[in-house]
Specification:
The protein is an alpha+beta fold. Helix content is 38%, strand content 26%.
Length: 494
């Protein structure tokens, strides 16, 4: 489609992710809604976009699901009006209703200047005091909703924005009035709802749940009690488990972040941002490219896999090619249990809790149904050297080594917070780069349900890590000091 075009329902249904802006939607009063930039796309249902209307900068939600557009638009409008009537801060709704385009309904909202999402603010709030201030402000806004009987059914950090010291609640579609009690939601119902947000935030930074609980109870004029605090903590753990599963499941299906392609000879998933690179064209011929050495270059090889540096456009990729141990493993792969797939999911489980790693961008499985004999994990190549090489080159630089081991300890601390162990603790699986120390091997990552088993396994792995320098006690002592600095040894026996 060309620029400055009037949009149709057919355009939205078929090309919602690939629209060329600006686009125009005529409204019944004769004025034009001009869309200038897509912000979010839900295929075959809705887009959210920036734009202009009657000379004002606005945010528009455009609904186009066949036979359901009016229903979803009205549900969103009702939720927004509930927030406004309750005095909850939310962007003003300028217009809600049908457009002149058949099957397309729109909501037009006030554009909030200099707004930043809670997700972005929380990501960069590294100081504990700044984290607490951000939490308290957000909790006050949520408590205000709960006090009037409103429940945010889709509780996540993207549904709150900050501007000029004010917290704005978004997404009227997920706002439900569940009670008209004078005191609003019952405390347990409110805590359960809040736990969904805190669970998501806890993946990024450790949350002091006692402070959160106290601030919420104070905002709602409830006396904090140990019984309700235990309930709140259990809900956070339960919601974190559910949310982790939901997020990792999305890495294996078509969605806003990932593209899936499947045929009789190839199954592949890649990050959607890679769709405009040569990656989709590369995957069907990946085996041939890996074997062409040069220009491909072998980095490392074991009995179970080989890593190859592969030139690609204006960058380089790392392809981890897994070998089959026996013939029947190919049939196991056909059922969806390849090593590359497992490593792909594991890498995203680390990204979820912000453990620094190399960045996998795709995985694929090749063969002919019902047998898939080859699987690959593709990552971006990052300049650096393995930790064992780095230590060898800098044995006498105590301060430099201490900084590097602090980076390793920080990664372990994040793993420990989620009861995850890394697996293979060979120093070659840690890459020292300008960005810091990155984890590179995702084959043996494990999430532990039992705290006791996790503690025992983590202790064993810390010991295995130190064994990389068993003949160099001064190096091992630097690593041990880093572990103590990050309180990794407090939970485990010495």
């Amino acid at each position: 489609m060309s620029k400055h075009t009037l949009i149709t329902q057919r355009d939205l249904l078929k090309n919602a992710r690939d629209l060329f802006y600006p686009l125009s939607i005529p409204l019944p009063a004769g004025d034009i809604l001009q869309l200038t930039e897509s912000l979010r796309v839900i295929p075959r249902k809705r887009i959210t976009a920036r734009g202009t209307w009657q000379g004002k900068d606005i945010i528009a939600k455009v609904f186009f699901k066949p036979r359901k557009a009016a229903y979803y638009a009205e549900r969103d409008r009702i939720g927004v009006n509930s927030l406004l009537q309750a005095g909850v801060t939310t962007p003003n709704l300028y217009y809600a209703g049908a457009s002149q385009v058949k099957g397309v309904h729109v909501l037009i909202f006030e554009f909030i200047d200099n707004a930043t999402s809670l997700a972005e603010l929380w990501e960069h709030a590294t100081d504990p005091k700044a984290q607490l201030r951000l939490l308290v402000k957000t909790i006050h806004g949520i408590a205000k909703q709960h006090n009037v009987g409103l429940l945010q059914m889709d509780m996540h950090t993207g549904n709150f924005i900050f501007s000029s010291g004010r917290v704005y609640s978004l997404d009227g579609d997920a706002i439900k009035r569940v009670t008209r009690r004078k005191r609003g939601l019952r405390l347990k119902a409110g805590l359960k709802n809040l736990a969904a947000l805190i669970a998501q935030m806890s993946f990024v930074h450790e949350v002091k749940t006692q402070h959160v609980f106290g601030a919420y109870c104070n905002s709602r004029n409830y006396k904090p009690s140990g019984r309700y605090f235990l309930y709140f903590e259990k809900q956070i753990a339960k919601q974190a488990q559910r949310l982790r599963r939901k997020i990792l499941e999305k890495t294996l299906r078509e969605c806003s972040s990932f593209v899936v392609r499947s045929s009789f000879t190839l199954r592949a998933i890649w990050s959607r941002e890679q769709s405009k690179t040569d990656l989709p064209v590369l995957l069907p011929v990946l085996e041939q490219k890996v074997k062409q050495q040069p220009p491909a270059e072998e980095i490392y090889k074991t009995h179970g896999y080989e890593c190859v540096k592969l030139p690609s456009e204006n960058r380089a990729l790392v392809v981890k090619r897994y070998a089959l141990r026996h013939l029947y493993e190919g049939f196991w792969h056909a059922l969806g249990f390849s090593k590359a797939k497992k490593a792909w999911v594991n890498s995203h489980s680390l990204n979820l809790i912000r453990v620094p790693t190399i960045k996998p961008i795709a995985f694929c499985e090749r063969g002919l149904l019902p047998w898939f004999g080859k699987s690959y994990l593709i990552s971006e190549f990052i300049e650096g050297i393995s930790l064992n090489e780095f230590v060898t080159l800098n044995e006498t630089s105590t301060e430099l080594l201490a900084d590097v081991f602090a980076g390793v300890a920080l990664a372990f601390q994040k793993l420990a917070r989620s009861q995850i162990t890394y697996g293979d603790m060979n120093a070659r699986h840690f890459l020292v780069t300008k960005q810091g120390v990155l984890l590179t091997n995702f084959d043996r990552i494990k999430l532990h349900r039992s705290a006791e088993v996790f503690e025992r396994t983590m202790q064993q792995q810390l010991y295995q890590f130190l064994q990389n320098w068993q003949d160099k006690p001064h190096i091992a002592s630097l690593a041990t000091a880093a572990f103590k600095q990050f309180n990794l040894t407090e939970s485990f026996s010495e």
